[in-house]
Amino acid sequence: MALDPVVIQALAPSLGTACVAIAGAWVVSLWLRMRHGYPLESSWGKPLHPMQNAEQVERIRLISQENAQLKAELGSIKDRLQVLERIATDGPSRLAAEIDRLPPKTVN
């Protein structure tokens, strides 16, 4: 049951294009997974985890620390914004009464 050479010549461009398209799709899929942080997988479906060196661990620690500082600063800014919104939306008489209730500041 041999294939006719004419059939092979007719199918060769289509099969070649299909192989290139499949390989290209695999490369794009792999690139997207790497770019968005998904773990790579071996041929058996087990995730491959890249080795972490001391520099990467330190960088992650510093970024986490900076993230915590920024979250604290954002919380402070939100509190200040709430006070400013209350001042802007409250009536002027209520604001004046609140200012009058504040204890006087002593100057040394």
Number of extended strands: 2
Total DSSP helices: 3
* Low-pLDDT ranges: none
Strand order of the largest sheet: 1-2
Radius of gyration: 33 Å
Structural class: mainly alpha
Order of helices and strands: HEEHH
Largest sheet: number of strands, sense, barrel closure: 2 strands, antiparallel
Overall 3D shape:
elongated
Average of pLDDT:
85
- Taken as a percent bin, the fraction of beta residues is under 5%
* Amino- and carboxy-terminal Cα gap: 107 Å
Q: Which bin fits the share of residues in helices?
A: over 70%
Q: What topology emerges from the helices and strands here?
A:
Elements: H1 5-35, E1 40-41, E2 47-48, H2 54-89, H3 92-101
Antiparallel strand pairs: 1-2
Task: Tell me what you see in this structure.
It is built from three helices and two strands. It has a domain at about 65-100. The protein has a two-stranded antiparallel sheet with strand order 1-2. A hairpin with a 5-residue loop joins β1 and β2. The chain is mainly alpha-helical and about 110 residues long.
Brief rundown of the structure:
The chain has helices at 5-35, 54-89, 92-101, and strands at residues 40-41, 47-48. It is mainly alpha-helical and 108 residues long. It is elongated.
